[in-house]
Amino acid sequence: MWRDISPDDQVDIAVDGYRIRAYGFGKGVNTVLCLNGGPGLPCDYLREAHLCLVDQGCRVVAFDQLGTGASDRPDDVSLWTIDRYVAETEIVRRELGLGKVHILGHSWGGWLAIDYALTHPENLASLILADTVACIPHLASELERLRAALGSETVAMMQKHEAEGALDHLEYMAAVTLLNYRHVGRLPEWPAPVQRSLDDWNMGPYVAMQGPYEFLCDALGDAIPDIDPDKPLLPQAAREIA
Questions:
Q1: 59 and 147 assigned to the same domain
Q2: Model pTM?
Q3: Which domain holds residue 17?
Q4: Are 163 and 105 within one domain?
Q5: Shared domain check, 218 and 147
Q6: Which residues fall within 8 angstroms of residue 135, CB to CB, at 6 or more apart?
Q7: Cα–chain-centroid distance for residue 155?
Q8: Is residue 4 part of a domain?
Q9: Are 193 and 44 in contact, with CB atoms under 8 Å apart?
Q10: N or C end of the chain: smaller count of CB under 10 Å?
Q11: What is the pLDDT of residue 218?
């Protein structure tokens, strides 16, 4: 399933004064444009999981969203908005001359894909949504439901540390690690492209748009404790269980 091969095309695209790195594999007529999750993850894990489509005659295109991978990584928090990422996606599609595309959005990339489809429906051949959500209130309630399965005492402990801004407390991190093991990745060893993306995760966009970790969603704009972006909770926990 996983293939680590050199791209047929590797292009840097200017988007509002920043450099975006795009990758193309295959020369097929049908183009699958991959929008990866995070936000803040390089596109390695998603593009390499779908390179098998090249064997089916498809062209697979992915790009490192602004702030990720080989693209520029500015520190301006005002850049981390879904509207700006929609505009970025359209510039990439247009500059690469992709025409109508089959957009594949995974996780946060699914949110981006939905907004792109609503903004530029004329540019879609199809829309593929993987492991994502279309309703943020529903997402928040389901994440809370999964967390509640840890038990009332553990949830109370987590809420106490959240209120105190102590998200790096060892017992809090242990609960995060357990949640990640149950619901994010259950493999004892994660595939190399996944680990590579996790190791290079830019937590700036992630914290600004999602929150400090997967099960404390701030997408609704609710207040969350201040945390240090240099202490990534999810990648740290992921490394502990990998």
A1: no
A2: 0.81
A3: 9-130
A4: no
A5: yes
A6: none
A7: 26
A8: no
A9: yes
A10: N
A11: 62
Q: Across the strands, what pairs with 31?
A: 59
Domain boundary, last residue among 93, 115, 130: 130
Reported residue count of the chain is 242
Give the residue from 12, 109, 118, 102 showing the smallest Cα distance to 56: 102
Between CA 148 and CA 140 the distance in angstroms is: 12
Query: Considering the domain boundaries, does residue 78 fall inside one?
Result: yes
> Nearest 5 degrees, angle CA 50-CA 65-CA 146?
70
Question: Is pLDDT above 90 for 224?
Answer: no
CATH number at residue 22: 3.40.50.1820
Q: What is the mean pLDDT of the chain?
A: 85
What does the pLDDT look like over 30-59, one tens digit per residue?
999 999 988 999 999 899 889 889 999 999
Q: With pLDDT > 70 as the criterion, what percentage of the chain qualifies?
A: 89
Strands 18-25 and 9-15: antiparallel
Token reading at 42:
């390089």
CA-based nearest residue to 221, from 140, 159, 147, 122 = 140
How many structural domains comprise the chain? Answer: 2
Would you say 114 and 129 are in contact if contact means Cβ atoms under 8 Å apart? yes
203: in domain: yes
Residue 95 maps to a domain = yes
Cis peptide before 39 (omega within 30 of 0): yes
Q: Predicted confidence band at 1 (pLDDT cuts at 50, 70, 90)?
A: low
Last residue of some domain: 130, 151, 185?
Answer: 130
